[in-house]
Design brief:
heterodimer, A: about 110 residues, mainly beta, four-stranded antiparallel β-sheet, 11 strands, about 0% helix, B: about 120 residues, seven-stranded mixed β-sheet
Chain lengths: ~110, ~120
């Protein structure tokens, strides 16, 4: 199975800060990577797919980058509504796997 | 608008069976790959199973292979998860999710999710 390792597991930042979350795959995933946002008690929401494509309706302060096995989700200017847990996911090889999650808190 | 509504979650004894349903609306269900994903309380996401748009192709997580079965009824716009030999570690919220789409038998990202249904397995 492909292991997806996210770091950090949690981050606390102020409104307006730039926040970066990383995700490392245990082997190459040919760009089949997505990022999801999940707020407490809610279902996950697709933010980014194909490493860097923004899902419709997602604010442009979210961006994705990376290649090979190393990927990044960046929030360019953190907003109060961005407080959530973020997950990366690979869909290149079964079983489809998620990272362990990164909790983003607002200071 | 796209809606996915799960049902069937319950408290069930270890070793018993349970069937979850996911009623889909707002899109042409029969043309989309669908998935089940679960999440234990306070834990991360775990993909459980996926099924092709025509129902002829399925994939499972190792943790449920041989115990769970995903299937669909395109005439009823409904996705199912038949769970048997339930264990304590199957106690989670189960979400159904629509695949964003890349072909009838191509699996990709999950663009719509239901609200989830809770399964509790008691010993």
């Amino acid at each position: 199975d492909i292991q997806m390792t996210q770091s950090p597991s949690s981050v606390s930042a102020s409104v307006g800060d730039r926040v970066t979350i990383t995700c490392r795959a245990s082997q190459g995933i040919s760009g089949w990577l997505a990022w999801y946002q999940q707020k407490p008690g809610k279902a996950p929401k697709l933010l980014i797919y194909g490493i860097s494509s923004l899902q419709s309706g997602v604010p442009s302060r979210f961006s994705g980058s990376g290649s090979g096995t190393d990927f990044t989700l960046t929030i360019s200017s953190l907003q109060p509504e961005d407080s959530a847990t973020y997950y990366c996911q690979q869909v290149n090889i079964f079983p489809l796997t998620f990272g362990g999650g990164t909790k983003v808190e607002i200071k | 608008q796209v809606q996915l509504v799960e049902s069937g979650g319950d408290v069930v004894q270890s070793g018993r069976s349970l069937r979850l349903s996911c009623a889909a609306s707002g899109f042409t269900f029969s043309t989309y790959v669908m998935h089940w994903v679960r999440q234990a309380p306070g834990k991360g996401l775990e993909w459980v199973a996926g099924i092709s748009s025509d129902g002829n192709n399925e994939h499972y997580a190792d943790s449920v292979k041989g115990r769970f079965s995903i299937f669909r009824d395109n005439s009823k716009n409904t996705l199912y998860l038949q769970m048997s030999s339930l264990r304590a570690e199957d106690t989670t919220v189960y979400y159904c999710a629509r695949d964003r789409g890349c072909g009838s038998n191509c699996y990709s990202y999950f663009d719509y999710w239901g609200q989830g249904t809770l399964v509790t397995v008691s010993s």
